[in-house]
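In the previous chapter we treated chains in isolation. Here, by contrast, the input contains two separate entities that must be folded as one system, with a combined length of 841 residues.
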Amino acid sequence: MTIFQKIRNQVMIGFLILSAGTAMSQTDFDAIMMNKSQFCNGLIFDHASWDHYWEGTLKRDNQNLGTVSTNSVMYMGAYGITNDLNVLLSAPYVWTKASAGTLHGLDGVQDISLMVKWRALKYAWGKSKLSVFALGGFSTPLTNYVIDFLPLSIGLGSTNLTGRAMVDYQWKRWTATGSSSYIARSNVKLDRTSYYDTQLHSTNEVKMPDALQSQLRLGYRGKYLIAEALVSNWTTLGGFDITRNNMPFPSNRMNSTAVGANVKYTLKRFTNLSFIAGGDYTVAGRNVGQNMAFHGGAFYAFYFSKKDKPKNVSTY
Amino acid sequence: MFPLINMSKMKKLFYPLIIIAAGIMVLPVSCDKNINDRTANLAPLNPQNIDIDAGNWKPVLLTAPTDIPVAAPAATNTPDYIAQINEIKSWQANITSEEKAAVKYWAAGAVLRWNEILRGLVAKHNLPPYQNPDGTYPIPSSANPLAYPQFPFANPPYAARAYAYVAAAQYDALVSAWYYKKLYNRAAPYKVDSSLHVMINRSDLPSYPSEDAVVEGAAVEMLKLLFPGDQDFVNAKAEEHKRARIISGANVRSDIEAGEALGKAVAQKFAARARTDKAGAAVGTPAIWAQFETDCIARGETPWYSLEIPKRPPMLPLFGKVKGFLCDSATVVALRPGPPPSTSSKDMAAETAEVLSMVTNPSREHISIVHFWADGVGTYTPPGHWDAIAAEDFVKQNYSEVRWARNMALLNMSLMDAAIVCWDTKYFYFNPRPTQLNPEIKTLTGIPNFPSYISGHSTFSGAAATILGHLIPSRADDYNAMAQEASLSRLYGGIHYRSDCQIGLNVGKSVGQKAIDRAVTDGAE
């Protein structure tokens, strides 16, 4: 049974804030495909927190925030249109909190994300397999949540189009997956009619810079156990630095590099059910929080025809 | 190694291609990322009335429009003048797209543009200094403005005063300019040479001295004092402004030079006043900060303390002593409202409970109102917000520059004096914020670092709505509704009690009335 590897979804992460750095791992970053007519879905809980952040390039703490935490419960679903074409959907509920100071946390349903994942090419020779994927994604806010209260906003509010190329190489059970994405982000609107970034703007509209995201994953892809280490980078193509002792802003130049690990285990006796767990840590950043994050989740797969029931959890 | 390609595989290409094609069709919709600034593409100023007699209007600080002498200009048939006309023509012959954009930008109005520039400087500098390693806070120094913490910290009282000085200096300088315009009556260059290409609206107003250069000169001179670390930016704007007026055909060089000199000379009088208006001492001293606390305890009340970590000294505690434009020190005391409910009273407990209820499951609409009016750190402050509201309405009124300046001066003198009366009240009572009385109150915007009673936003908004309602009566109800919303936004945000807001609004209205009293007697109505 193929599935989810989860997870910290970029919907929350990349776009998030001084909190979450960049997307760690998730189904639309891995090489695992649902077979035709399979449907798998589940919930993931994610907890991320930081007590230091980068004000521009200056690393600092803030006693008036203490530790800022972002929690989410995300629904994810994936469906195999064909063995080589999957669609993935996700939407999180997010809540934030600062441990010190007086600022109020926020909560709400954030963005829905829809991703199409296409395995365009596959080669096999000896004990090696190589596949090439193209992915296209769309995400947009499901609610009119507050974006202009960073670092306690639950998201940045832009509608995004993502294009991603991904290559996966497998030798025996060992795998390497690399991907690179371009994220086109729509402008966003504030509740106020004017703001200052590097100049005064008399409008509520903020130009959001696009972003690049890349990821490398190395690991073991067994029949029931998948374990991977990964490094991930989010680079905003423009934007401005937080000035000294200022508040963060949605169009800041948010960059982040994080390392992490993910594990997925599928029950041998009941392959419909699988569990995931993982964590990541931001090792470098700019205008983001230095996140330490953990996630865990459970997924249930439906096999609509008997022949689809896989004999092997890994793919093709 | 062979690609696993067969016919069924080819078929499967169909779905992804459709999806990718759909994506490509959607993409251009989101690709236009230019943002539409509300004042970026305004039409050139086109006054309904040139206010030719504004030289008789009552100045703020000048004793007479002739306080600063302006020499008679050269006649328009002299070789010197004709050479200046030719300068315009040579600029126009080689005009660049940047120069065209500058002409268009400045044509919208000199008072408008310099007010916007000032709002940008305030927003840039409205940042509280970061603490020292020992937990104390550094104080910005005007003598060393570029060292951290940069000078100034353009907080609301500082900003209110800056807006008022710039606006009042521009107004007085323009009253004087209008006097000389009528006296010398030198026609605009396009009236002297009808072959001149004109890129602004033609006017019957005499062009010597240039009203644009007066406004620019007054602004540049005031900003040396108010934003000494931004002189490169300010001077670049000034050069662009002066050049734009020549390129547009509005003024010859001697119009500009005379106007700039007049603007600077008038502003120097305001700068001299500013150096002695007691704002420089408004920061206070540790002994003074402690005295507020001691006095409050002696009255049997719980004193305010800073909710920042580490505790920050109160913002400009002696700003209530600053010399106002509309209210003298006796009037400031007279306008001071009675005390808030005692911190130990049932009334205060009820008010605190109401604040807690406001921030418990706040509605999205309330948060939106809080953030619309927050005007906190990194913004142009509430006085700047009211200037923005006023400016966008003034644009529609087609005022002359001198009436623009007069109305901006009335508004901003109200806002500065509102700050003075409000700060006097805040430090007279030294009342704690809701979160101090109940730490469960988490706020939807930052808690300003000064006592609660009375609300600054409410005082500013009451003053601004009152004078603006007088200036544009058709909008009076709207201004009052805005002021009411701005005032309540502080309760919704959890940073003020309802009584802070209500009484602040009323005190602000009293200050605004002082501006009306001036407006009806200044000769402009």
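Chain B touches chain A through 61 residues (CB under 8 Å). The mean pLDDT of chain B is 95. Compare these points with the single-chain example from earlier in the chapter.
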